[in-house]
Write a structure and sequence with these properties.
Helices cover about 50% and strands about 10% of the residues. The chain is mainly alpha-helical. The chain has 2 domains: about 200 residues, Vaccinia Virus protein VP39 (Rossmann fold); about 80 residues, no CATH class. The strands form 2 sheets. The protein has a 3-stranded parallel β-sheet, covered by helices on one side. It has a two-stranded antiparallel ribbon with strand order 4-5. Keywords: Magnesium, Metal-binding, Methyltransferase, Transferase. Belongs to the methyltransferase superfamily. Type-7 methyltransferase family. GO terms for molecular function: metal ion binding; methyltransferase activity. This is S-adenosyl-L-methionine-dependent methyltransferases superfamily protein.
Length: about 290
Amino acid sequence: MSVANILHMSTGDGESSYAKNSLLQETVICKTLPILKHTIKSLCNANVIFGQCFKIADLGCSSGKNTLLFASNIIDIVDEVCTENNGKPPQFEVCLNDLFRNDFNNIFQMLPDFYAKYRKEMSANPGFVSFLLFQVPEGIENNGLNIFMAKTSPHNVFEAYGNQFHTDFTKFLQMRSEEIVFGGCMVLAFIGRKTRDPTRDDLGCIWELLAHSLLDMLKEVKMFLKSTGDSNEPRHNHGKNTTNLITAVSESLLISHFGSSILERLFKKFEKHVTTHLANTKTRFYNVVISLS
């Protein structure tokens, strides 16, 4: 099944929802603000002022408060540019990513406060189909018990993921080049790594820990063991927070493969692995920001 048909962020506003577990993404948005401001200001000079309608396309998850934070930052920057150039602020049209199972209820509930802040006419149109989705490459059946590139993965798995990334990202840039209007721009921010080896990256370790959690459950089924003692374990905040974050972004994919009945036990085991890992390792995630015009 196509990733676009099943992928979406965890819905609602519960403990493991994307709305409650997107602080890391919010931090990235805030850190990219200087680049976003420079990019937008570069669109405007002494001879060119924004037209009557300024259109924004959010290619991200379009879930939770970060969606409106992104739009709010752009509106503030455009308003600042118009003030500096004695121009009239335009109307704004914001197009949100409409993955098939996206939950827009949370966003709609926040719109009244958003409108109250700006008191400007703004159209929120959840009908812009665009997202950076990488498909799972073919020919990686020999990846053993791994769910991603791991230390024990054979060479062809790394090559397959590399080729798939090249194909998908090239197509993504080609499609975006057709969508950007003359004189328009685009700012991309996505997670990266500090080394060429994906198995040494902190994010790669997280997926290996999730694979270990699935393996734990498989061993239990084979040995007919019952899970005990989970409810009496002390809660470790860092492990819990990381577990909620991964749940929020990967739950839909896991359900499509394994069903929903295993999720609670799976992520309890995942939390144990993450807590142990974070107790011994200082984890740091890296992000790449690119401004296109």
